[in-house]
Amino acid sequence: MILSSHSPIPWFDDFLGLAYRFYDLRMNVVPLFSEKKQANDLWRATVNWWLDHSIKIRFVESSDSYWFIMGADSEHPQSNISFFKKLQKSKNYERFKKGHDGEAYLRLGSYSDQYLKDVKKNAPCDCGHAAEDHDKNDNDACLYEICSCKKFESFQVNLLKKKKTVTNIVYLDEKNIKDDPLAWNCLNVNQYSKLK
Ligand SMILES: [Zn+2]
Ligand SMILES: [Zn+2]
């Protein structure tokens, strides 16, 4: 956690990244943690007390990357934090950008790597072939000759059930963030002040 004298609310970037989920009433934005307990604890300590209408998400674009920035007013201001993370743009990022329609559900989730021994036969590998098409006697390599996959790899994302509705989502270019206090504060504290 980064505590800064410039900001009354501490900035927090100790999470893995974001997942997006599209098959829901609203699209989901999901900060990911390696342990479910971390996600639960953070929800209870912080996000639970956020006032839905005050939650702001900012995506600040900077060539191939973007900053995810999120903050809100809290019923428990003393334990409040704001999230940020610099991430690579992805297909899912673009899909969310085009499709969110001004609203999203915020949830927290956990992310874990999965190996051949952890999954059912029909679980898909990152290579696109199913678990049963991988050979546990050959280091879990894919059996398809045309495939270069040397080891079954997949991952699982578990979402916490609790969610908040976010209706204040704005995309900005890094060049024009000065009029947005949350984005400006974030980059000032977490980027510009470190470059000096
Ligand atoms: Zn594979
Ligand atoms: Zn394969």
Short structural description:
By secondary structure, this protein is of the alpha/beta class. It has helices at 36-45, 91-99, 181-195, and strands at residues 11-12, 17-21, 28-33, 56-62, 65-71, 82-88, 104-106, 109-114, 134-135, 141-142, 154-159, 164-166, 168-173. Strands 2, 3, 7, 8, 11 and 12 form a six-stranded mixed beta sheet that branches.
Into which percentage range does the β-strand content fall? Answer: 25-35%
Q: What does the main sheet amount to?
A: 6 strands, mixed
Order of helices and strands: EEEHEEEHEEEEEEEH
**What's the alpha carbon Rg, rounded to whole Å?**
19 Å
Number of helical regions = 3
- Roughly what is the average pLDDT, rounded to an integer? 93
Count of beta strands: 13
| Span between termini | 21 Å
Tell me about this structure.
- The protein has 196 residues and is of the alpha/beta class.
- The chain contains three helices and 13 strands, in the order βββαβββαβββββββα.
- Strand 9 (134-135) and strand 10 form a beta hairpin.
- The longest helix has 15 residues, at 181-195.
- It is elongated, with a radius of gyration of 19 Å.
- The two termini are 21 Å apart.
- The mean pLDDT is 93.
- Bound molecules: zinc ion (2 copies).
- One zinc ion (ZN) is lined by residues 125, 127, 129, 134, 142, 149, 152.
